[in-house]
Design goal:
Structural class: mainly alpha
Low-confidence stretches: none
Largest sheet: none
Number of helices: 3
Order of helices and strands: HHH
Radius of gyration: 15 Å
Number of strands: 0
Mean pLDDT: 88
């Protein structure tokens, strides 16, 4: 696997993991509020957006310049 392929796989896995955490905090509202983890819901949501935008930028602009 090339460096470009590994980077894309890593970005996808990071985004999926972050989206899983965001969804977990949305479905387990009682646990999140009891443990004061509201910051985790907001933070994971924003981080998912940032990772997805970075992934799209990488695929569109940067991946072309990396040696296979």
């Amino acid at each position: 696997m090339s460096l470009r392929g590994f980077h894309i796989v890593f970005i996808v896995l990071a985004a999926l993991t972050d989206l899983f955490v965001w969804q977990w905090t949305r479905t387990n509202v009682e646990d999140v509020e009891h443990l004061n983890l509201e910051w985790l819901r907001v933070g994971s949501g924003w981080l998912a957006v940032i990772i997805i935008v970075y992934g799209l930028w990488f695929i569109i602009k940067k991946a072309k310049t990396i040696i296979v």
